[in-house]
Amino acid sequence: MVEKANFDAVVDATDLLEFAARGESPSGVQRVEMGVLPDFISRGSRVTALDRGRGVLVELNPQEISPLTDSAALGGPAVGVAQRLIASLTERPELQVSSESVVLFPGAVWINDSLMLAARGLHAAGARLVFYLYDLTPVLHTGHTAAVNMLYERYLTLVSATAARVPAISVSSRRDYEHWCSEHGYSIAAGEATGLPNAVGPNEHAASDSPWSRPYALFVGTIESRKNHIAAFEAWRRLIERHGRDSVPDLVCIGRLGWNANDFLKEFTSSNGLDGKVSILTSSVPDDELIAFYAHAEFSIYPSSYEGWGLPVSESLAFGVPVICTDNSSLREAGGSAAIYIPTADGTALANTVEKHFITHIEPTVRGSDLQALAPVPPTWLEVSRKLWQEMEAASSHKVGAMGPEIELGREYALGVEQPAPDGAHADRFLEHLVSEGFTPLLSQPRDERDFRITDAALLGTFGAPQAWGLQLLPQYPCTIRFTRPSNESLTLLVATRSMPGRALVETISPAGSQRSEVYLGGVISIPLGEGESGEDVQVRITVIDAGDSVEGFVGIQSFVVLASDDLQGQLAVERAAAKALRQELDFVTGTRSWRITAPLRRWKGRGTP
Fold first, then answer.
1. I need a surface site. Which of 175, 316, 567, 577 has the fewest CB within 10 A?
2. 498 and 556 in contact (C-beta within 8 Å)?
């Protein structure tokens, strides 16, 4: 009998849903989601997904998501199911949570800034959050773009501020998470390592003929710099030089194209894959074909620089196929005493090891059932889901903190994530970037690219899709700004709005009372906070009552700053911003066709300019 929850269990399926809609073959993260969701659904868990247009989580019927847990359906029937589900999200009510709710995020939250904001909202509503951690690749290993690195740091900041529990796929990933938190001064949420089941195994399909016409070694993994395909390529070049083409097995690389693999791809194309000895299969390879590739490989290699687990290692061993892998991060958890280990990023060591074990056979090699007996026994999906369930149970008694972040008096915090600078070869674009992106919009202070550590915790609400310039305040969707009071004196909160034609009616509620004001967009929302005790929690509520006179139908907010109420610098900034907004409004009006058409009438009446 399946144990039911004594708390409100919710599982986020956003990542799996959006991935399925794109029709791609599943990566390790999506395989985890497919593996654990059925057990959570059987326990009565609610399932949720993000409506990106509104930036809110909505509830799904568990039966609606079930077809996406079948790996054979992904890329086929699941595509239409997922696309129809996503199209229906806009009509669904927002997910309701309480202090009895525990929400598990088993997917790739870090690539979705809207989902990160929505998770903050759940935490503010009292829900306990559990984040399943895979690895810390973007912050520990180069090879990703600056934007991805920053998104992942933003994700880790979210996790450290809101998580009740942080289970991880490996002991190595948990250790990396704890080390990162210690380095950055964050508290460390508890959590256990679950291990990871193999995505494919030798017993799932009947034996088949070899998928390759010649003997081959297998390299499964995304084509990206971290996986070190360039080291494998150079090793194969050396082996061919030493022993000739016919004595060296082919190298078959299976994986999607990823990040910064330029060096490998240049060498591969310029040499025609070492004249056919190295091949890349980048299109979706279904599981039955992948199984055939594993089953018939002479051996496999996995020279990765860093992993959260290392499925290609444990999967190769499950087939009784020897594997050579690097000795770092979690790879010994995946390979145990059964794998053959080499130093990281050492093409010469890889070539020498392949040579000794599989060409000259100087070193004996264990394979088949003997190798399978040496390999670590991976957990089942049911065992992993039960461990995650235990993490949710532990989270249900966690106390949710309600204090806002500590802010500095007089410092302006930008709400948009700073965009990467363009290529310095284009001086004009680079200068324009420095001027537009390098300073805050209100006080022209140098921007801190890590303002998100404060702003993500300070702002709560439904914002629509996050923008590079900031956040959208939609009519009738309140926004809360919370922070720890930086001073005893009378304070004022200033919120800079995005410059665009139009105006809006805005209501604010603060410790000093409520007020309604008409704001020209590009101006400042000025909110008195009054006096109070330094260190106490302050919450301000902003609601756009009417944005019908704005071009885009919402109020864009770019930054906020708290100043002393008698700060003349703040007053001057407000007046300048208001004047600029009014000038923009007049420029817009005078540039319209109706203004030009009515010019003769105004001249006749003595109004306006010719």
1. 175
2. yes
Residue 479 shares a structural domain with residue 565: yes
Distance separating alpha carbons of residues 230 and 233, to the nearest angstrom: 5
Is 234 among the domain residues? yes
Q: Are residues 223 and 176 in the same domain?
A: no
Both tokens of residue 496?
């800079």
User: Residue 535: how many CB atoms within 10 A of its CB?
Assistant: 12
CA distances from 309 to 313, 332, 391, 535 (A): 9, 9, 20, 42
- Short-list 179, 97, 96, CA closest to 133: 179
Contact 493, 558 (CB under 8 A): no
User: Is there a contact between 378 and 314 (Cβ–Cβ < 8 Å)?
Assistant: yes
Query: In the numeric block, which tokens belong to residue 404?
Result: 């806002």
**Amino acid in the structure at residue 429:** R
Residue 450: the pLDDT is 84
Q: Which helix (H) or strand (E) holds 51?
A: strand 46-51
Q: How many Cα atoms sit within 13 Å of 188 on the Cβ side? A: 16
Total count of domains within the chain? 3
Which tokens hold the place of 321?
């196929």
Low-confidence winner among 226-235, 380-389, 500-509 (lowest mean pLDDT): 500-509
Q: Give pLDDT tens digits for 27-38.
A: 788 889 999 999
Half-sphere CA count of 161, side-chain side, radius 13 A: 26
For residue 444, being part of any structural domain is answered with: yes
How many angstroms separate the CA atoms of 74 and 337, rounded?
35
Residue 335 structural domain: 216-378
Can you tell me which residue has the tokens 């057990």? 39
Rounded distance between C-alpha atoms, residue 344 and residue 177, angstroms: 21
Task: Share the mean pLDDT of the chain.
Answer: 89
pLDDT in tens, 440-457: 888 889 988 888 889 999
pLDDT on residue 436: 60
Three-state secondary-structure class, residue 253: strand
**Cβ contact 452:157 at 8 Å:** yes
| Phi/psi at 181 (5° precision) | -60, -45
Residue 21 shares a structural domain with residue 95: yes
Strand ranges of the sheet holding 537-546, from the earlier edge strand across to the other edge: 459-461, 479-484, 537-546, 503-510, 513-520
In sequence order, what DSSP letters do the residues of 447-460 get, joined into one string? PPTTTHHHHHHHEE
Could you tell me where the DSSP H helices lie in 227-296? Answer: 229-243, 262-270, 272-276, 287-296
**Which one, of 212, 219, 296, 299, lies nearest residue 254 by Cα?**
219
Q: Quick one: tokens of 519?
A: 């704001």
Alpha-carbon dihedral 557, 563, 567, 570, rounded to 10 degrees: -10
Q: Which two tokens stand for residue 167?
A: 């289970």
Name the pairing type of β-strands 513-520 and 101-105.
unpaired
Identify the helix (H) or strand (E) that includes residue 177.
helix 171-184
CA proximity to 453, closest of 496, 486, 408? 408
